[in-house]
Amino acid sequence: MAGRVLEGKRVAFLATDGVEEVEYVQPREAVEKAGARTELVSLKAGKVTAFNHLDPSTSYDVDVPVAQADAGAYDALVLPGGVANPDFLRTDPDAVRFVRSFQEQGKPIGVICHGPWTLIEADVVRGRRMTSWPSLRTDLTNAGADWVDEECVVDGNLVSSRKPDDLPAFCAAIVERFAR
């Protein structure tokens, strides 16, 4: 991650209450360090409470409610995990539309842990090789993805990773992919 390879890029982080803090903070720091401007997009204005596993942690300011967000204004998207976060996101039509728009525009998407639930709901995983938290294997397979148990998988515009332990590889891969 040498230099500011993402200078001039704008990256959306789509998350809500229950986002796994480390899966939000470390990727955001990585893309910002590489020069990107980042924004937290969420279901509502105000704040999002991150979690450290199942324990509430820090709250973060929302930059844009997803109902007002335009995927065309961003160069890339990151979907952090946490169990509750993607479950809430996948039930929100605006969040699903936002995610689907990135795929339709061929823009890079980074997703980790339970984050693929939102991709499944957006119907954008069919035929894709990806990884996730192990409990999502059946969900991804049923949605048409080729699930593999690897630290980080890059398939076209999609970068996926399994868990917090994989964050170093995930962060390096999203910066590299977002720089293209």
Automatic annotation (TrEMBL):
<comment type="similarity">
    <text>Belongs to the peptidase C56 family.</text>
</comment>
<protein>
    <submittedName>
        <fullName>Type 1 glutamine amidotransferase</fullName>
    </submittedName>
</protein>
<keyword id="KW-0315">Glutamine amidotransferase</keyword>
<dbReference type="Pfam" id="PF01965">
    <property type="entry name" value="DJ-1_PfpI"/>
</dbReference>
<dbReference type="InterPro" id="IPR029062">
    <property type="entry name" value="Class_I_gatase-like"/>
</dbReference>
<feature type="domain" description="DJ-1/PfpI">
    <location>
        <begin position="9"/>
        <end position="176"/>
    </location>
</feature>
<dbReference type="InterPro" id="IPR006286">
    <property type="entry name" value="C56_PfpI-like"/>
</dbReference>
<dbReference type="InterPro" id="IPR002818">
    <property type="entry name" value="DJ-1/PfpI"/>
</dbReference>
